[in-house]
Amino acid sequence: MIHTTPIGTKSWLSEEINNAKVFRDDYITFTKERCSQGGGAFICVKNYIDCRVLWTDEGFEMTAVEVKGGNPKFAWEVVGVYRAPNEDMQVIERLAAWTGYPGNSTKRSTIEGDLPYADWNGNAGGNSGSQVLINNLVWENGYSQVTDSPTRGDALLDVYLVRPESSVTSSGTVQGVSDHLAVILEVEWEDTCTEPQVERVVPVYNKTDVSGL
Fold this sequence. Notes:
Layout: E1 7-9, E2 27-32, E3 41-46, E4 50-56, E5 61-68, E6 76-82, H1 90-98, E7 108-114, H2 129-140, E8 144-145, E9 158-163, E10 168-175, E11 181-187
Parallel strand pairs: 6-7
Antiparallel strand pairs: 1-3, 2-3, 4-5, 5-6, 7-9, 8-9, 10-11
Helix pairs in contact: 1-2
């Protein structure tokens, strides 16, 4: 069975808006919003899957959820993060601290974020302050960037970092609901949960007493 876990940014919600008004009720929704309009990050998990909040950063728009399958080794840490274009790179430093890689950990991890104006591919030797922070997050924490095409115009803004890279089976982009392309990422997953069947009414129109209406 395929389980979808939408992750997104720029949800632009406030505490006064209930998630039920925006998100589907067959998902459990986790959000981290800013106090003013703009930004925001959210993670949606099917409501029959075992999941819980791992952490939420108080200063930046980022949150993490643990999603568990039937096999403990297939548990995933799913992180959603948004960095505004005018925000400094400290958000990357905080993200690296939250997702530090203990060598004996079997937990798999993915980070999805709108993280503009950063070099996520190939500049491992960069010595600028911002590039050092990115290198600490990616290489020292064991992540690989798997989005290989632009997501808005010619720019790669929507980053998917995965640990380990071998858990990815495919990735690509499709037209989204905004000016960004949506990234579709397929990863290894093993579980024993099943989607509950919802009882529904199916009208049998050919048995209707039309003359009596």
